[in-house]
Every structure is written in C-alpha cells, then in structure tokens.
Write a structure and sequence with these properties.
This protein has 329 residues and is α/β, with parallel strands linked by helices. The protein folds into two domains: 160 residues, Rossmann fold, CATH 3.40.50; 148 residues, Response regulator (Rossmann fold, 3-Layer(aba) Sandwich). The chain contains ten helices and 13 strands. Strand 9, helix 8 and strand 10 form a beta-alpha-beta unit. Helix 2 runs parallel beside helix 10, helix 3 packs parallel to helix 4 and helix 7 crosses helix 8. The longest helix has 20 residues.
Length: 329
Amino acid sequence: MVVFAMVLFAACTPEPPLSRELSVEKGGAGAYRIGFANASISNSWRVKMRDMLLEAAARRGNVHIFETNAQDDASRMNANIESMLQQNLDAILVTPVVEDAANPGIEMAFASGIPVIVFDRHCSTGDFSFFVGYSDRQNGVETAKLMVEALIKKNGAPRGNLLAFDSVAGSSTDRLIREGWDEVFSQYPDIKIIARQYTDFEVGKGKAFMEDSLARFRPGEIDGFVSHDGGVTLGAFDAIDEAGRGNEGLLCTNADGINGVCRLIREGRVYGLTQFPCGAGVDALTLAIDVLEGRKPPAKEVMIDSIVVTAANVDEYLIPGGDDYDWTL
C-alpha cells in the first residue's frame, strides 16, 4: 500500500443514524476532518479494511475520522451521510451498500462541495469525485480464465459443470464479478453453470449451498465451482469433506485471498484466486488527502490491476501457521 500510494499520486438493532464515534482523534487545529461511510463490518474483509484505514489515519497524525456503520442497510447509509455532513467535513469516503439505493447520500455529499471518494463497491450515480480500487469485473474475468485452464487440465477440453457461489444481490461486487465470469464462460458452450446461490459473504450459507448441491447432483455431475468469497469457499470445502466426496477432485477458483484459500492452493485443492486487498480503504484515504492537497488523478476512476495467485506464487501470500481467515493482503 505504501508503494501504491507513492506511485499513484507523486467491507442489528436500530440505532440513531450517526453514532458520533470518533475512531481517530489525533490531530489538532488544521487536521483533516474526513467522513467514512462504511457499508458494514459484517464480514472479516470489512473489519480488516476498516482497521487498516483507521491505522493509516492514526499514523498520519493529522486526520480526524468520523465513522459510521450502515449495517448493510442503504437507507441507514443515506441517513448516516446526511448526519455526517453536519460535521464540517473536508472530504468523505463512501463504500456503498448496493449500487442504486445509496445514491441519494452520495449525491448529497457531492452537492455539498467536498471531495467524495467512492471505493470498494461502485455506485450508479455519477455525482462523486473519484472512485479508487480494484476491478471486480476483472477479478471475475481472471477467476473464470483460471477455471477454464483447470477444466482443460481435468477434462482435456474446456468443458464441465460448475456451481456459482454469488455474493450480495444488488451489489456492484456481485454484478461485476458475474459479468467477468459471463464474458469468459460465454466463449465456451460446454462450460455450464448448473446451479447458483447468493451467499452474502457468509460461511454458513456457502456450506449450506454446497450441501444442497451435493444432495442434488451425484458424483461426476459437478466438475467444480467458482466463488466470490474465501470464507464461503472454505465452508463449501467443509461440506465436501463432511459428505465424503473430497476424492472427486472438484475444482475451485475464488475471487478473494484469505489464508485458508491460499493453503488450499498449496494443497492443490483450489486452482487459483484473485486478491481484493483490505488496503482498499487506505487507498481511498490516500486519494482523499492528495485531492485536498491539490494532487488530483488524471481520471475519475483510478483502477488497480488484478493480483492473481496460483500454485506458482502462492508462497508469496500464504501466512505459515496463520489462521484460515487471516487476510493475506
């Protein structure tokens, strides 16, 4: 993330919309006052992303973060943003809950005249200053390409029946990864997705979908699966092993990089993954400060190349002895 920052510019019960939690209190007069409208901390990626962002702000010493948690509710996010705008902010960072429903809050922030930095997930409005992040669509393309390679090695040709473990209905993450998969798989008529399910980034839902699929399809009827989430993938493999079907050699490619999935690459059970780094929030904070200091990027969307992990480079990301749910980047 440090290298990226230098090169770039030279993730309940009802409560009041804004908790007024001042997560970072360093910085006196002249400190930047930056809002952080977080979609939620409902999964491990979002928790790690939040922690990294707040740590980066604390290291700077001149950043005051006003943080809110929408609890995956777009209406709450809009209310949070409206309340935060009363705090005399210099800029606001927004990671939308879903593409459309959070637009009013984003547009309100943009109309206030402060820089609005969208990251992690896209919005469908154009009323924001900049988007920074990794391309979910490209991650979908790369994981689909990996699956094509794996199917050719397994079956001698690009053919096979796949399960698709989708993420959150209505989110840009879900839409864009699916678009990437479709772009690649549409070129191979003998590759078919025979069942799919939204799993909401929840391990239990991933495991349940695999359990249902194993009950529905007999040995030999499933060649593999593609997944949006590492925890969901681990849940799916738990279901495979508990059903006694680990010897079928089901293939898997995955669109994020937690340690347990890297371990499965090392063991030969997962063919490959793409990284969606938790440092996305640090990238957004860096961009916001650069913009405030007059260093604007040349384009409205600042996209970072996908990071592909396979058996050839997995040792660069695997955390030996680390927890399966540790994020590796």
